[in-house]
Amino acid sequence: MTEKCPNGVMSRELSVGEVAERSGVAVSTLHFYEEKGLIRSERNRGNQRRYPRSILRRVAVIKVAQRTGIPLAEIAEALAVLPHDRPLTVKDWSALSRTWRRTLDERIERLTRLRDQLDGCIGCGCLSMQECPLRNPMDTLGAEGPGPRLLEPDAV
Amino acid sequence: MTEKCPNGVMSRELSVGEVAERSGVAVSTLHFYEEKGLIRSERNRGNQRRYPRSILRRVAVIKVAQRTGIPLAEIAEALAVLPHDRPLTVKDWSALSRTWRRTLDERIERLTRLRDQLDGCIGCGCLSMQECPLRNPMDTLGAEGPGPRLLEPDAV
DNA sequence: TGTTGACCTCAAGTTTGGTTGAGGTTTTAT
DNA sequence: ATAAAACCTCAACCAAACTTGAGGTCAACA
């Protein structure tokens, strides 16, 4: 069942079930990814999917990207420029992960800014559209100046 | 059109369109929130929605919670214990925002951990299910030990 | 008194990321 | 040889958070 090369690395192509098991995603998900163009498969004479072992890295990359919050469509775009017929290299991975790291950084920054605003507003609660930094998410520009605001019961 | 009280605060009830404009959410969204139990409305004799001005703070709170990533269902739950018939007080807001701040903190932490793992793996790319911290998101436990991993072309 | 704009309800559509199931074929194991 | 396990396609369904549209009513203004 498991054919080994001289060097001891298993080199047989993988069935969809094997890929599912080894990559930790469901078979249905692999079908789905294929439909979305994220992965590709060859077929054997019985029309069953057969994958090169490099699929495992590709799927792994997809999963990591998803954890950073990148939507599948964007992941697909990023992977689209890379060939399906050879494994992703370390270089490919570096480029991708560096990009994703940057967007992850931005997400973290945005959330951190939000947290700070929340801190500044916990004791206030005015939530004024005009004056409260929480309601004015001018996310990038530092048009801040939180500080306590006076709270008029309904003057939102 | 705008009736003022002696003290200069407008105290008229608001129509759904007015709430939409002043709170920055669409009319359809207000209908939707009502259906989900997040907000409530009185009706005038013509069956049109009429809101007390306190609705504006309530909607504001919902929006802020959403920005922190809290799903509507959870926001609904949190707001459920608070009466619809009086404005949210600073105390209400403090309690809510403190809770949400904590979950926001967790989100930030999780993302930061991910970023660090990504940093450790950018030059590696093994993405091994067994060995790569990026693939083993045992998020809470510090079962770390990233460091460089040797990269065998297909040994994912 | 129109007529226009705001409002009403209810149903259906949208997007993202999949899962579930029916009905049928292929592979694998005995 | 046969039965079970794995695979195939295609369609439908799920949840979240809304939006859109149809068909009809109400209100505000000239």
From TrEMBL, chains A, B:
<dbReference type="InterPro" id="IPR047057">
    <property type="entry name" value="MerR_fam"/>
</dbReference>
<dbReference type="InterPro" id="IPR010211">
    <property type="entry name" value="Redox-sen_tscrpt-act_SoxR"/>
</dbReference>
<keyword id="KW-0805">Transcription regulation</keyword>
<keyword id="KW-0408">Iron</keyword>
<protein>
    <submittedName>
        <fullName>Redox-sensitive transcriptional activator SoxR</fullName>
    </submittedName>
</protein>
<keyword id="KW-0479">Metal-binding</keyword>
<dbReference type="GO" id="GO:0003700">
    <property type="term" value="F:DNA-binding transcription factor activity"/>
</dbReference>
<keyword id="KW-0411">Iron-sulfur</keyword>
<dbReference type="GO" id="GO:0046872">
    <property type="term" value="F:metal ion binding"/>
</dbReference>
<dbReference type="InterPro" id="IPR009061">
    <property type="entry name" value="DNA-bd_dom_put_sf"/>
</dbReference>
<keyword id="KW-0804">Transcription</keyword>
<dbReference type="InterPro" id="IPR015358">
    <property type="entry name" value="Tscrpt_reg_MerR_DNA-bd"/>
</dbReference>
<dbReference type="GO" id="GO:0051537">
    <property type="term" value="F:2 iron, 2 sulfur cluster binding"/>
</dbReference>
<feature type="domain" description="HTH merR-type">
    <location>
        <begin position="13"/>
        <end position="81"/>
    </location>
</feature>
<dbReference type="InterPro" id="IPR000551">
    <property type="entry name" value="MerR-type_HTH_dom"/>
</dbReference>
<dbReference type="GO" id="GO:0003677">
    <property type="term" value="F:DNA binding"/>
</dbReference>
<dbReference type="Pfam" id="PF09278">
    <property type="entry name" value="MerR-DNA-bind"/>
</dbReference>
<keyword id="KW-0001">2Fe-2S</keyword>
<dbReference type="GO" id="GO:0006979">
    <property type="term" value="P:response to oxidative stress"/>
</dbReference>
<dbReference type="Pfam" id="PF00376">
    <property type="entry name" value="MerR"/>
</dbReference>
<keyword id="KW-0238">DNA-binding</keyword>
